From TrEMBL:
Named cofactor requirement(s): Mg(2+); Mn(2+)
Stretches of the chain forming a coiled coil according to its record: none
Keyword Metal-binding among record annotations: yes
Enzyme active site: 123
Name listed for the protein in its UniProt record: DNA ligase
Species: Pseudomonas eucalypticola
Length: 783
């Protein structure tokens, strides 16, 4: 055997083992990045030695040439369906029939019945599939079809990551047909739909449809790109018996690499089955995948044989269903709600219908793009879905049932609350110094605080606990204050009189006094709370804190140019423009002036934060101007050669070519030939200097710190320090701490409970430290 062949076999065995640990045992022993490395090595070796590629290699999960049709497969043993139970009484009746069929003494009121052993499994909501293994190799995959004849989807099932292409170990029957469900996790489904939405592709109404649509693809490359999973729940044809019980079979299959349900349990008697049903029902929302019930099977295979079948259902198994999460109902009307930032949102008014035990009469429609995507008309029959605690959603229109008098949905031209004009928002993209404007999905009422709906929401937000924390002012009272014209901006709260409050519904002397005290006590907020309370679109608590901490004063935040704001951690250009235009708006400036006029004193104001000062540099500023083909490196070269912004602006082509390649030099010259650009750059520089930045000193600070220029992310919980402390320590070493993982992240610190950020870091191959390693690193730097 050649060295290449030996290594290929080694790699396959190792990858198979990791796959098994990951998919079946749920105990991965190496990080994903290491797995990817081994996988790449195998792929490269196989590419160099195509003759050594075999069908069972882990690299062969990528799909194959597209088919024109699926061929048919006959199921030697038919694939049956299950009887359903909805109520406890149905289940007790099932158990009684089983006992009777097995000639066991049936219990009476005083007990005495035999306890039949049942296996309990979740009923996954996907589609049934048969996988045929010959001598341990996967040779065929088929859909259930009508139970007797299905479709050959062999190439497609081979792309499913947790379907073993080759069985592990030994001792398996020469012919072994396993049966189970192909499904998509809730997270996989969301991700798929998001991706489809981005590329304008077909979205799916639920994970089941997504799984079916993905598996029955003639082009298996598409299947390979979809997050499908398999879970085995039984056997078909076998050349040899495996175990004496159903659970025995599944456990043996697990040792051969077959994924089985982690929820598989044995119940002794019907009461334990019912307890299992209740337990899974309580955890239904928290499970990673959707289930529509649980399946109980008589565990003893001998008893199963004795009970046999009735028509197309086994007498030894039953599905105990949960309430459905989807129902059909009628769209009576679409109304429009106005939110805090003026967004006018369509809301579906539905003929009330019970979905998973809760009556649903309204559902959000998000925005007009969603209405268009659904092709929704008033009068339509629609599919409503209420997954877990999520707000009910309209998933689909049943176009076949559209009545003749169905009406289209139109966005109103004027605000339903205040009558102001409703405008479509614009999406402004800024790149290469140019702005491109396109239409956004959101419509806004331009009335702002003159619009009752926006005013009410703005005040509810302003007084909320994490904002100004004015206790004692509930939504109802805010509505009354606005409706009676006592308050027309947040500033008016500070001039309310006891007489005005005591007249409100639900107020008496004591509560009036308490509310006035709470209003007075809110007059010394921190700068961060105050910024958050203003309700600037896209500025949550975190961003408000960043603004306050970095810029140190309301004055600076109010005048900061968008490009200056993008120096702050986690503030992108879009949000920067939102912040800037909020403070440019005379109306908002007026409210702020009034608030300060009523005696509000902002706490914690001070200097520009050192971290912010250290993050600015002249080269950074030039890079932010988005001059065609001039990135950070080009900017550095310019600064090194020419020294100051004035000189760069004044430089001619010849000067510039000493620093840059001809194409870049010309781009810089052309850019600054436009006086508006030159002015913008100078204004930026001026503002940064006015904020206390000095180009000469800043470089030293940055370079002096050991983690300068690095972006870190903290996720999960740390046990030996708080995340805030961890963040401060990193920042004091010069690192930037970001809230999300991207290709630019240098390192992720992951504590227990780390979730999607850790997954993403692993996907991107980013260095991950646990708390111990993190502390060791801090200590190494004297932290
Ligand atoms: S046993 C003869 N077990 O439910 C027994 N089915 O209505 C056949 N299903 O077509 C099926 N999870 O697609 C079984 N743990 C489970 C299941 C399960 C989901 C589906 C399967 C089947 C349908 C039966």
């Amino acid at each position: 055997m050649t060295a290449a062949n030996t290594r290929i076999l080694e790699l396959r065995a190792e990858l198979d083992q990791h796959n098994y640990r990951y998919h079946v045992l749920d105990e991965p022993s190496i990080p994903d990045a290491e797995y990817d490395r081994l996988f790449r090595e195998l792929k490269e070796l196989e590419a160099a030695h195509p003759d050594l590629v075999t069908a069972d290699s882990p690299t062969q999960r990528v799909g194959n040439v597209a088919l024109t049709a699926f061929s048919q497969v006959r199921h030697e043993i038919p694939m049956l369906s299950l009887g359903n139970a909805f109520e406890e009484t149905d289940m007790r009746e099932f158990d009684r029939r089983v006992n009777e069929g097995l000639d066991l003494p049936v219990g009476d009121l005083f007990g005495g019945g035999a306890a039949v052993e049942y296996s309990c499994e979740p009923k996954l909501d996907g589609l049934a599939v048969s996988l045929l293994y010959q001598d341990g190799l996967l040779v065929r995959g088929a859909t259930r079809g009508d139970g007797t004849t299905g479709e050959d989807i062999s190439v497609n099932v081979r792309t499913i990551r947790n379907v073993p292409l080759k069985l592990h170990g030994s001792g398996w029957p020469a012919t072994l047909e396993v049966r189970g469900e192909v499904f998509m996790s809730k997270a996989g489904f969301e991700r798929l739909n998001e991706g489809q939405m981005e590329v304008g592709g077909k979205t799916f109404a639920n994970p089941r449809n997504a799984a079916a649509g993905s598996l029955r693809q003639l082009d298996s490359k598409i299947t390979a790109s979809r997050p499908l999973e398999f879970c085995c729940y039984g056997l078909g044809q076998v050349s040899e018996n495996i175990a004496e019980t159903h659970i025995g079979n599944l456990e043996k299959l697990k040792t051969w690499g077959m994924p089985i349900s982690r929820e598989l349990k044995l119940a002794k008697g019907i009461d334990e089955c019912l307890a299992y049903y209740r337990d899974i029902g309580e955890r239904r929302n928290a499970l990673a995948y959707e289930i529509d019930g649980v399946v109980f099977k008589v565990n003893s295979l001998a008893s199963q044989r004795e009970l046999g079948f009735r028509a197309r259902e086994p007498r030894w198994a039953i599905a105990h269903k949960f309430p459905a999460m989807e129902e059909l109902t009628e769209l009576l009307d679409v109304e429009f709600q106005v939110g805090r930032t003026g967004a006018v949102t369509p809301v579906a008014r539905l003929k009330p219908v019970k979905v998973a035990g809760v009556t649903v009469a309204n559902a959000t429609l998000h925005n007009m793009d969603e209405v268009a995507r659904l092709g929704l008309m008033i009068g339509d029959t629609v599919i409503i879905r209420r997954a877990g605690d999520v707000i009910p959603q309209v998933m689909q229109v049943v176009t076949e049932r559209r009545p003749e008098n169905a009406r289209p949905v139109h966005i109103p031209e004027t605000c339903p609350v205040c009558g102001s004009h409703v405008e479509r928002t614009q999406l402004v993209k800024r790149s290469k110094g140019k702005e491109t404007v396109s239409e956004g999905a959101v419509y806004r009422c331009v009335g702002r605080l003159a619009c009752g709906a926006q005013l009410k929401q703005a005040i509810i937000h302003f007084v909320s606990r994490r904002a100004m924390d004015i206790d004692g002012l509930g939504e109802k009272s805010v509505e009354q204050l606005v409706d009676e014209g006592l308050v027309s901006s947040p500033a008016d709260l500070y001039i309310l009189t006891p007489e005005q409050i005591i007249d409100l519904e639900g107020f008496a002397e004591v509560s009036t006094r308490k509310l006035l005290d709470a209003i007075a006590a809110s007059k010394r907020p921190t700068l961060a709370r105050f910024i958050f309370a203003l309700g600037i679109p896209d500025v949550g608590e975190e961003t408000a804190k960043v603004l306050a901490r970095s810029l140190g004063s309301l004055e600076r935040i109010m005048v900061a140019l968008p490009q200056v704001l993008t120096y702050l951690p986690d503030i992108g250009l879009e949000v920067a423009y939102e912040i800037h235009s909020f403070f440019e708006d005379p109306h908002n400036r007026n409210v702020i002036a009034e608030l300060l006029g009523h005696g509000l004193e902002l706490q914690d104001q001070g200097d520009v934060h050192a971290e912010f000062a250290a993050s600015t540099s002249l080269a950074g500023l030039i890079a932010k101007l988005d001059i065609n083909s001039v990135g950070p490196t080009g900017a550095e070269k310019l600064v090194a050669k020419l020294g100051s912004l004035d000189k760069i602006i004044a430089a001619d082509g010849i000067d510039l070519r000493q620093a840059l390649a001809a194409k870049q030099a010309d781009a810089v010259r052309d850019y600054f030939r436009d006086p508006a650009n030159a002015e913008r750059a100078l204004k930026l520089e001026q503002q940064l200097q006015a904020f206390g930045m000095h180009w000469a000193s800043e470089k030293k600070v940055v370079e002096g710190l050991p983690l300068a220029g690095q972006t870190w992310v903290l996720t999960g919980s740390l046990e030996r320090m708080s995340r805030d402390v961890g963040k401060e320590k990193l920042e004091s070493l010069g690192a930037k701490v970001a809230g999300s993982v991207s290709a630019k992240t240098h390192c992720v610190v992951a504590g227990p409970g780390a979730g999607s950020k850790l997954t993403k870091a692993n996907e991107l191959g980013i260095k991950v430290l646990d708390e111990d390693a993190f502390i060791a690193l801090l200590e190494a730097h004297g932290g």
